[in-house]
Amino acid sequence: MIDTLLWSRWLTGLTLTFHVIFATVGVGIPLMIAIAEFVGIRKKDEHYILMAKRWTRGFIISVAVGVVTGTAIALQLALVWPNFMKLAGNVIALPLFMEVFAFFFEAIFLGIYLYTWDRFRNRYIHWLLTLPIVAGASMSAFFITTVNGFMNQPEGFVMEAGHFIAVQPLEAMFNTATASKVFHVLTSAYATGAALLAGVAAFSILKKGASLYAKKALRLMMSVLLIFSVLTTLAGDMSAKFLAAHQPEKLAAAEWHFETERGADLILLGWLNSEREIMGALHIPKALSFLAFGDFNAEVTGLNEFPADEQPPLIVHYLFDLMVGAGAALVAIPAVYFLFVIWKKRNELNRWLLWAIVGCIPFAFLGVELGWFYAEIGRQPWIIRGYMRVEEAATTSPSVRILFFLFLLLYIVLGTICVFVLRRLFRNNPAELEMEKSAGANHLKSKEAGDVRR
Amino acid sequence: MSYELVGISVLWVFLYGYLIVASIDYGAGFFAFYARHTKQDHLLNRLISRYLSPVWEITNVFFVFFFVGIIGFFPDTAYYYGSALIVPGSIAIILLAIRGSFYAFENYGSKESKLYLFLYGATGLFIPAALSVALTLSEGGFIVAADNSVSLDYMKLLTSPLSWSIVGLAIVSVLFISSSFLTFYASRAGDLPALKLMRNYTLLWGTPTIIAALTSFISLSQHNERHFQNMIDLWWLLGLSIICFMLAQWLFYKGTHYGLAFISVMLQFFFAFFAYGIGQYPYILDPYITIHNGATSPAMGTALVAAFIGGLLLLIPSLILVLRLFLFDADYVKGKR
Predict the structure, then answer these.
(1) What is the ipTM of this complex?
(2) What is the pTM of this model?
(3) Under 8 Å between Cβ of B47 and B335
(4) A108 vs B315: CB contact, 8 Å cut-off?
């Protein structure tokens, strides 16, 4: 029985870990494509149009994996956690349903966008198609995040005899956790999209030299990255204040803050000995109080106030610290880049900085993954915080163990092929070559059109 | 009309929509593989990829839509079907994942892999078979519910004539619907060799479809007397379905009006599918869930119906746009843009 529970958690964790990579790309990249195409049309610069085209081509491969893993997690919710869906379905059905609508909307316009590059005389019409894609992707993220918000901060119902009654769907959707969560999810997804594309541009400069195309892509994406990583930091601060006020046990576990006290220290890294004493950590005096309440002397609730069987695992401390570290790097690296751009004496394209920009890719994805691990493990032992424990929600079928390995295999295959296909797509087809080709094709096309007219 | 009745009707319409668009997709996979096998692939490949590439994601959404919708309107279904279907459901997910992603890899990435084409063809038949298990379960008798757990009686499922006849019906229907659509699409594209080939397939798969439908109907009479009797009472719907089938076959045989012929096929399945669905009323899972005892709270039900109407206002114009751009744009269909 306990075994089944463990495998159920592993299976869901596995699917989500894999899906989050592609879901984040799916939310982040469309905005970058829209920006590049807009800049291209505006400046009449074919380099940016080509950027939008090439990014779209790569994007579509990752969308495919995102769609199928998203379908998997949607079905797994009912297959692996039937009791959870039976209970919570009454309250979270609305955002789930609307998420599918948003996804539908995005799917339709993505298909149109892909196949109509040369169909409209006015190029802005084709660009307008990116708006429903960006909106659809961001709306899906919004709706699904409200579901997760509900599981963390259940509101909008009355519990009676093991059932949710007097359900108010909108109140459940716009629960107290929603605002900070959605803000954090969206900004970090956009930052990740920009980091990914900036990293790719930096890598191509390192390998093949600084072409005009790569330099433009790098500059554009670094500015987007700077904006969204700063916003992500703000969103993170908002989330910490939310936790301090509404889920103190999660914040306390992340900070290894055991005793309730005023002027609490912020603890970085370190380890615990067998008596739960903190060793080798870096203490920043009173910083936790300031982070949590904006006041250096505020009182922060400690973990010891909560019953032992309702405390989250203490490992979340590392997840939290590493997430914050990755986020800090994503602010620092573009900041240095622009410092070098403005301060002409230093070359912003020096090798060290370029390698650091390539490093933004793993930092961004690690930040997203660790952030989710922290959010999810940090609310253990609950599946619906305060109402349903994880062990009450899981399936009783012993097959989940085999299914775990089956899905693991599936994701390994999908991930490998995805990387393989993406490499093949871009490796033998550098941007410069494509630029020349498309210029040639346009020339040919106008010549053909001339022939027909004659 | 009560919200749960609105809910189930809407969901049934969406399941019907999925039946049509997914059949076209799944059948196309099989035909693409079969054509390669018999060295006729040059006739079909362009036709298939031309129509299917822009819409594969939309097809997938139809399925998720139905699935999320039924859990939303009837949360009990998550408990019973979720618990019972964990193994067949997971297999279906894996097949869908292989198909969906390889689809994109093939179209936008690699080209011409025979292994891929085999997977594409094989999953096209296995997925409908795996998904049709849910329909079989709804007839009751395969799910064992104890106090705190629900499980599936595999022995009974695998030895039941009903489950096998439904699987058979699912597969031949997929091939029939798909070939009739591709015949119509080929005629619009003015692609005569593909038209000839697909028309032959359509005529070939018409008869087994009706035979499989009859077999399933007879097995149903053995398995679930109530459902069978209800469907007999809806004889006129079944009659309309057969008339549409005959009209379609006649048009395909004569080789004219392929558009009308495909609409007849759609209507044929529409009438049969609704006769089946209405006959099952009021059960969603015999005997555990009816649409009344399994429904969500009124507030949520109303919110879902409202969301649904709002969503449709967004979707219908977009879907019309897709159809105009890719299905009814003569130049696109003919491959000129």
Answers:
(1) 0.81
(2) 0.85
(3) no
(4) yes
